[in-house]
Amino acid sequence: MGVPRPARLVVTVLVAVVVLAGGALAALRVARPGALPGVTVAGVDVGGLEEAELERRMTALARARRAARVTLVRRATEGAGEASTAMPAGELGARLDVDATVDAILAPGRDANPIAALADHVRAFAGPTRVAPVVRVDDAVLRARLARASQRLVAAPREGDVEIRGATVTRVDPAPGAEVVLDELRPDVRAALLAGGDRTVEVPTRPVEPDTTTADVDAAVRAARVATSAPIRLTRGDAALVLSPRDVGRTLDVTVERAGDARLVLSVSPGRLEDVVGERAAALETEPQDARLVLAGGRVRVVPARPGFRFSAETAAAQVRELAGRRDDRSATLRGETVAAELTTSEARALDVDERVSSFTTYHACCEPRVHNIHRIADIVDGAVVLPGETFSLNGYVGPRTRANGFVGAPAIRDGEYVDEIGGGISQFATTLFNAIFFGGYDFLEYKAHSYYIDRYPMGREATVSTPAPDLAFRNDSDAGILIDTSYTDTSITVTFYGSTERDVRAIMGEPYNFEPPPTQVQHDPSLRRGETVVVQEGTRGFDVVVKRVISGPGGESTVEEFFTRYLPQPRIVARNRSGRG
Hints:
Number of strands: 37
Low-confidence stretches: 10-32
Radius of gyration: 54 Å
Number of helices: 14
Shape: elongated
Structural class: alpha+beta
Oligomer: single chain
């Protein structure tokens, strides 16, 4: 049985349409080898562009889409202002797939069904064809970047606080903060990335409650008001440190303590207290006083040491906080840092200074300027204590001989010449001290005899000093301490050493030798008559001398030391009129 005639007619028509559509489609494809006219991608007209140009255009669009910024905004909370952070889409894991997007642009008009493909060409005449760009989002990258960004958007809860300005107390109530809900944020950001361009996304949040409560603030306000309600008085001896309510307020600090249940803690800041007290602390401080060795009735006794006191901001802050919690009786004795003396009472007693070891006296004329200097240096050295093994330097102990230090001008010998200088004459004291050292048997470290022999001093047992040199120095090589006692009259100076020693010391004076006659120096004096000669200074011979020091111990053993001195001849000076006129 054959196909009915009407059916054959329909088939024939359809075949004809397909053939015609195919021919038309073939013609259109020849005429339109690239994208159909009117095709746009993300607002970019790409109609009629061939594949190579499409790839170039989409590559540029991909770069722009990667650079587009997504801004995350966390709205303000009660305790914190608004916060935001922005990131390029590329950092969030978004990229435009260039190849897939080009394929999507070229797809219209290329359907396997010629009729559907021809319909695309026909629609191209009617209006634009919008093609969505193919965007890939790496969910792992997106998740990681958002987790990191969300930390910058967290609003910490505002803890309760008390603001104290002087004596004015102001409460600050706690308020919740906010944290980002990532599971709700990711879909919104993903949609923004797919949409492309710069986008702003408001982040979803959930509240974060503070650790403190309004009840905590109530308690801290009460404590702060009590603390600043009245002055605080700290005393030390006759001195007092008074902190006004405003002063107390300036030292206070309020912090959150989270050990167990959180609470607000009122404390006193040592640093702030130190700033408030300032120089007033000096009136409360005392310097330590060393134990002293003094002579009383010819015997050495120990005057006990006294510790000093230093203001300690840390210790005082604890006291202020304790007193600040009281409504009454806001006074106390100031506690602080005890400063020990360098020489304690027990150390002074252990020095075993219990006998006179040596003493020496030299004599001088009364009432000359040099006597004032001798007395002044004696006063400075009087009471000096030299510990076992310690070195004593006369220059180091006395310091510069200046008018400010109590010395006056007087004759002295410098570089072998007589000159007038401040502190002149103190070599008399140095010589006296030298002999006390000598007969105490102590170890000389530095000394220098005078250039010329001076007959008021023991030959070969004398010393001169000047600044900065020469110096007179010795070492206490005994097991006991030394107390240096000085005394004087109008015509004498005495230096006595007190200590403890079993040594016996004696001096053996040698005979002078190697004499050298004095040279003669002639000075021109035009005031003299012709031929007249006047002796200005009688000369003295120079010579050498050796003094021996014999130190005997308790077991009979002895040591002998030699002290060699060379005295220069002192020139004979005469004056005459050399011009021959008179």
